[in-house]
Sequence to fold (341 residues):
Amino acid sequence: MSLLRSLERPPPSALPEDASAFLAQLGGPTCIRVPGRDRSRTRVATTLLHGNEPSGLRAFLGWLRGGAEPAVDAHLIVASVQAALEPPGFSHRMLPGRRDLNRCFHGPFDDTEGALAQEILRAIREAEPEALIDIHNNTGHNPSYGVGVEVTPEALALVSRFGSAFVWSHLRLGALMEVLRDIPSATVEVGRSGDPEADAVALRGLTRFLGDETLDADPAVPMRVLVTPMRVCVREGARLLVSDLPPDAAHPADLVIRADLDRHNFERIEPGTRLGWVREGTRPLVLLDEDGRDRADFYFEVRGGALIVRRSIIPIMITTDPAVAASDCLFYVVRERDAAT
Ligand SMILES: [Zn+2]
Fold:
């Protein structure tokens, strides 16, 4: 039995306003097919690879309820329906104990998530799309931006419908984008889950992606390309605190990160800036470059207990959620393309 159902476009009047009700109606992973003005071409949009990232789903629903006819055939793929429906709703990235769907696209394909990833890939390949976008939310305060494994004019043009920054990622995680190199495609991170502005960015971008006759770049949007993400992580076992005060006996920590740090995503942070504090005698911060080398001492120093930036950096995807920082990383460091560090 197929895990990914196929559904012809439902009439707007049959669609609920509420995204959870829409998911319940779908009942499982679904590809919604919408005939366009030009039936010879197809574009694919995917969303909800992560169940706690609802902006893309809300955009799908808003666009379908609007009743617009797309320029070309549109296939809208809604993936992690069960994870998203798991109470209290849109709070689980994946079902408890299961794999992250957006880490499954290189296989293995022998569990439910792997099998779904394989079916999604098959559906995309069969559609032979001229372009694909995958809509996500993220945590922290970030502007809307795109991510891709290759910087191509087509990928930049797709992202320009959602934001003005493109992160060129070399990370190999098993994400959908990594296996679609022959299709013009990009992931877009439209902002924080639950932020109405993120929902609005997703709907606006999707409407243009589906409605524009051609997918040329928007000359009004100068794209900023950021390359080579390096990961800044908290060393295993180190205690992290998010606070505007240094650690003390009442608030012990090996590393304290300024509470407002995530307001500086995508901004250049100049040498001498204090990011937080470090407990004397500890090295709680790790900065891993592409080759997995720790370059923390090159970029940061500790002066009188304060954690100071030594070289200009651009941090992105900063999280001030200690649980996320512990399980993944604190932030990424990127540089402008063509700029030397
Ligand atoms: Zn995601």
In short: The helical segments are 19-26, 55-66, 81-85, 112-127, 153-159, 196-211, 296-299, 322-327.
